[in-house]
Amino acid sequence: MPLFKGLSSKSTPKKAITYITREDKAAFVGVRNLFEDEDFAEQFADTMRRFGKGKKFDERKYYHFKLSCARKDNVSPEQAHLYAEELAVILFPDDECVIATHTDTKTVHSHIIVNAVNPITGKKLRISESDYTKMKDEANRLGSEFWYTKTDFRKKAQNKRTTEESHIILKGGTSWKEDLREVIEEAKRSSSTQEEFISHLALYGVSVTRSKTEYSYLHPQKKKAIRGLKLGNNYTKKEIENAYTENRHRRNGEAVEGLGRTGVRETERGIAPYDGQSTVERDIDQIGQEMQRLDRQTEYAHRGLDYDSEVVRRREREERERLEREHIERSRRDKELASRNAQSEQSGSDGNKQRNKKSDNYFGK
């Protein structure tokens, strides 16, 4: 699902903006209601000064949101950035925003930093728990238009909610424990080892503080960790390890599905089932090509991707690139033809001028 997380900060936005726009992290950087050729943080500060805001130490100065999609959606950096920009238009139409899409981790994700002071009205941006939930709903709705995986973040099986949490959810809010459950669920779906699981949680600032006998999770805005059992049975170490095993079996099953005794797919591309002689009779080049295809399929399976879908996407991408090259070539030829025609017309015009000049001289005598 599109994972949308946010927090407010009382610090000056310069460090946060510098971080998300670093060249070694950001593949794309965009802005809303800001000048692209001027310092973004300074423009935030100018807006605050113009309305006499941002002077107090404990005053909200900006909001920082992080937006990412499930790995299985195979979202490209271009798609992720477009998604983040369109979401910013919907959620913050009149606010100053810096939008950066990072490719420095296994999961492509975007950051949106929003000035807490509106540049038109000077009013502070206030986001209640109910507003925050509506923003998540909007991220899901827009994500569905991009065909991204959608999950109801309010509903998790076997969760242990306190009375306070239930009250918040009934009001349309999201508790910090719900945030943890949501991130852990995503990590469970995409991990086949403990290292992958912990690394995925770290993408969202969540750390595992105890892992020998039981998992405890530390929310980035909390000082004390919470045991997995306190979140629900789905978040204990035993359940997480069961998920590792299921994910490994599923990936391995996808990689070897349909393999015959020779280790080669028997029904694809007209290859006959194993008959005791096929290995000898089969053309060596064909075997090599088949094994290369299987290696690629296994690699995709380990990355949680579907090989056939990736082949279709690659062919579509190659077709688009071919059409684009043809369009560029046609444009180049059209320009050359237009240039030659212009030169020809210019030469004809110069010849007429010369003849007119001679005639003028003649009549002037």
Write a brief structural summary.
With 365 residues, the chain is α+β, with helices and mostly antiparallel strands.
Verbal overview:
- The protein is α+β, with helices and mostly antiparallel strands.
- The protein has three domains: 1-150, BirA Bifunctional Protein, domain 2, CATH 3.30.930; 152-256; 257-305, no CATH class.
- Helix content is 51%, strand content 12%.
- The chain has twelve helices and eight strands.
- The chain has helices spanning 14-20, 40-50, 77-91, 129-145, 163-170, 176-190, 194-202, 228-231, 237-256, 278-281, 284-302, 307-364, and strands at residues 3-9, 26-32, 62-68, 97-102, 109-115, 207-210, 216-218, 226-227.
- Strands 1-3-5-4-2 form a five-stranded antiparallel sheet, sandwiched between helices.
- A hairpin with a 6-residue loop joins strand 4 and strand 5 (109-115).
- The relative contact order is 0.08.
- Mean pLDDT is 77; it is low at 166-173, 258-284 and 356-365.
